Amino acid sequence: MVILWNTLAGGDPEYAAILVALNSVFQILLYSFYAYFLIAIASNWIVPGSGTEINISVVDVAQSVLIYLGIPFVLGILTRYTLLPRIGEKRYTEGLMPRLGKISLLALLFTIVVMFAFKGQYILDQPLDVARIAVPLVFYFLIMFFLSYWLSIKLKFDHAHATAQSFTAASNNFELAIAVSIGVFGISSLVAFAAVIGPLIEVPVLISLVNVAFWIKKRRFDANGMVKEDASLRTLE
Known about the structure:
Elements: H1 2-8, H2 13-46, H3 58-87, H4 89-125, H5 127-154, H6 159-170, H7 174-185, H8 190-220
Helix pairs in contact: 1-2, 1-6, 2-3, 2-6, 3-4, 3-7, 4-8, 5-6, 5-8, 7-8
């Protein structure tokens, strides 16, 4: 999704791919510890004495991360180094990879449909719970996007790199969150339901931010995509 938003907004595709790859590596290495800290430790600080006991270990989260990210990551490396020399770069990048991308997107959509099949009645009965999930997410997307763009302009990145950084910062790892929540808590859990709300909010918000990126380009960057001389001294009003 990050690469898609970046492409639509005219960002640097290679730079975005590097950021996504680094993000995947960091997730494989650190996500399980981060999730365990938030769920099992930090939650007790935020709501002390709530009486809710959460039995989760780093291993539980790590298993889901390795299945969802580790296996595809290894298969991606093997695919590139085995098929690329045989079928050539053009058939690999223009033929095989777009087809694999569609398969992964269909798999995610199938998961979301199944999730809502389990929780459709809950959405109708408890719409305020959906709103409580959606509102903070919208603020998150907006804050991360504009903060990243503002910093990029201050540091005088060109439009292509600033756009890639901003959409990477604003996007979320909802796909991984869905996989972990299903693997640890079960597909019918409220935790998994909360995770699946994410992509449904992310898609319309980030599509809107694509138009915002073009508006920023017109106001803060010149015809060559470089920051205007005085743009780094102003905010994104």
